[in-house]
Amino acid sequence: MTTTQGGHPVREALGLDSLPVGEISRFFLPIGESGLGQPLSVPVVVARGRRPGPTLGITAAVHGNELNGIPVIHRLMRKLDVGTLRGTLVAVPVVNVLGYERRQRRFMEGRDLNHLMPGRPDGNDAEVYAHRFLHRVVRHLDFLIDLHTASSGRVNSLYVRADLTDQNTASMAYLLRPQIILHNPPSDGTLRGAAMALGIPAVTLEIGNPQRFHPEFVRSSVVGVRRVLAHVGMVPKRRVAEGPEPVLCHRSAWIYTDRGGLLTVQPGLTERVESGQLIARMTDIFGEPNRDIHAPFDGVVIGRSVDPVAQTGARVLHLGAVADPAEHPFYSRPPAS
C-alpha cells in the first residue's frame, strides 16, 4: 500500500532514477518525526527529462516565513515543457516545514537552519534535520539555487549572494539578473555553503520581502532561473529582455543602532549613498531626537529596516560597497549563455 500525505505519495528516498521520465512527480520526503512519531516531510517536485543532463535544485523557505520562493517554483513548473527538458529539475517549495507551519523564520527552539548546515547526524533536532536534508536531497544535485527573502521588519532588493571567484556561481548570479550581486563566499553554516563544500555550485537569491508574495520580483526570478537552466543545457535558449545591468558589490555590512527608540530610515532600496550621508534618525519615546545615523562608506542600499521600534543593536540598513572591476577583476561579466 502506498503511503500518502495531503493526497500525494510519500517516498522514503529521493530516488531520482526511479521516477518516470517525461513527467513531473510530486511527493513528500520524510526528514524526521514529530513527538507523536508522525513524519516531518518536505514537499518535493521533480521534473525528469527524457534526455540526460544535469540535476539542478531549487530550494525555498529554509526560513519558514520567507515565502516568495514558493510561487517562483510553482510558476516555473507550470511553464516548464518537460518534453524538451534535459536532465532533472528538483524543487523543494518548503525546506523548514515547522517554521512554515508556525509562520516563523526559525526551526524549533529558535534555531536557524541556515546557520546550522551541514548539521549533525547525532545532534539536536535542528542539526539532525539539516543533516538529513543535505544528504537526502542536496547531495544528489549538480547545481543549487536557494531562494530567500528579507526577515520580518525588513525589506530587500532583488539580489544574489554568490562567490564571484567561482566561474560557475558567478555565471549563475549574472544569469539570474537581479538588481544587485553581492560577492559573498559562504562560510557561515548556510545551505549554500554546505552545498559548495560538497562541490555543488550554489547561489542564494533574495526575493524581496517576508510573509507575502512580491509578484514583480517573482516574475523576474522565474525568468532568471530559466536563464540558468538554459545556460547549463537543460532547456532551449530563447531571447528575453535582459533589463538593467546588476550593481556589483565586493562586500557589504549591516549598520546597527547604538541606542533604543523610534527609527526612521531615509534612503530606499537600491539607492546610492555617500560616506557620511544621513541615512536614519532616531527619536525617544517622547518624540525628542536622540541620534542621527550616517553611512560609514559609499555604497548601495541592499536592504533596510521598516520596523520603527528599535532596541539597542537593531538593524538599520544593509549597505553594499560597489565593486570597481579594475580592482576586482574576477567581477568581469562571465561569457554569455
Any chance you could write out the topology, listing elements then pairs?
Layout lengths: L3 E2 L2 E2 L13 E11 L5 E10 L2 E10 L8 H11 L6 E7 L4 H5 L23 H12 L6 E6 L5 E3 L1 E5 L4 H10 L3 E4 L7 H7 L4 E6 L7 H17 L15 E10 L4 E5 L6 E2 L4 E6 L5 E6 L4 E7 L3 E2 L4 E8 L15
Parallel strand pairs: 5-6, 5-7, 7-11, 9-10, 10-12
Antiparallel strand pairs: 1-2, 3-4, 4-6, 8-17, 9-11, 12-19, 13-15, 13-18, 14-17, 15-16, 17-19
Helix pairs in contact: 1-6, 4-6
Structural class category? alpha+beta
**How many extended strands?**
19
Shape: globular
State the distance separating the first and last CA atoms: 46 Å
Q: Which H/E pattern describes the elements?
A: EEEEEHEHHEEEHEHEHEEEEEEEE
CATH architecture of the largest domain: 3-Layer(aba) Sandwich
Radius of gyration: 21 Å
CATH topological fold name of the largest domain: Aminopeptidase
CATH class of the largest domain: Alpha Beta
Strand content: 25-35%
Q: How many discrete domains?
A: 2
